[in-house]
Design brief:
The protein is an alpha/beta fold. It is about 55% helix and about 10% strand.
Length: about 260
């Protein structure tokens, strides 16, 4: 028998469907401006504060059972401000910076018109699922901000599950939600470590790596089945996969027919 055809496509959210990095840069510029204009920080000091916060976000370990994400992230800003400017801790300034950063970032998170069109077309042929890692509150706010709910049959947030990508369990949970087998699913995302490795771990039919800069991965990195430079290239990849499946099925049928003789 030929390989099962694709029935479902799982999409990552951040920097796959929406440009979270660009929205984050816009948000940082707003905070820098506010620190300079309203709080008389120098340009260098303002940027140092923001860089320190970004470093803290990258290393962030959040236990929702112990503290809410808002308190944790205000603390990042509070620490960065004190580390840069010295003096007493300034919780109110930290909160102002955090909410300005958060609000601005959400305002600039948009699902591009062409991406909306692509999802609408794909949904005519496949079941679509959004699979994103991260804190429940943060990711749900992003999903709401970019208004992507109508384009998906299901949405799964890692922070709401026992395990996140790349654990196989979350992918199998997604398969169960849609009533499909792993070998009928494709994972699309920008992260080799979570999206691609996770899809491979879970035994999905295929993984598609969104590599916008066409950077060369490390030798030790997981190897995706397909690489695209724009998410809009995905329909062509799915079409190619379907063609290959049909060709394999045709070959298998010919072999079976010959064996019968």
């Amino acid at each position: 028998m030929g390989a099962p055809s694709v029935k479902a496509v799982f999409f990552d959210l951040d920097n796959t469907l929406v440009d979270t990095a660009a929205a984050g840069r816009r948000a940082i510029e707003e905070v820098v401006k506010a620190l300079r204009c309203r709080h008389r920080c120098g340009e260098g000091q303002a940027r140092d504060i923001c860089e320190k916060v970004q470093a803290k976000l990258l290393k962030e370990c959040h236990d929702p059972g112990r503290t809410c994400i808002t308190e944790l992230r205000i603390s990042h800003w509070e620490e960065a401000i004190q580390e840069t400017l010295g003096g007493e801790a300034n919780r109110s300034l930290a909160a102002e910076c955090y909410f300005l950063w958060k609000t601005t970032r959400l305002q600039h998170l948009t699902l591009a018109e062409k991406t909306r069109g692509m999802l609408t077309e794909l949904r005519k042929a496949f079941r679509l699922l959004l699979l994103t890692n991260g804190d429940r509150q943060t990711q749900r706010e992003k999903i709401e901000a970019c208004a992507c709910q109508p384009y998906f049959d299901a949405i799964v947030v890692g922070g709401e599950q026992k395990e996140e990508k790349p654990a196989p369990s979350i992918f199998h949970y997604c398969c169960d939600l849609l009533g499909v087998q792993p070998t009928e699913c494709v994972m699309v995302g920008d992260s080799l470590d979570t999206d691609i490795q996770g899809g491979l771990n879970a035994g999905l039919k295929a993984t598609v790596w969104l590599n916008k800069t066409m950077a060369t991965p490390a030798d030790s990195a997981p190897v995706p089945h397909y690489i695209i430079s724009s998410v809009l290239d995905l329909p062509a990849v799915l079409q190619k996969m379907e063609h290959n499946s049909n060709a394999k099925l045709g070959n298998d049928r010919r072999v079976s027919s010959n064996e019968a003789h």
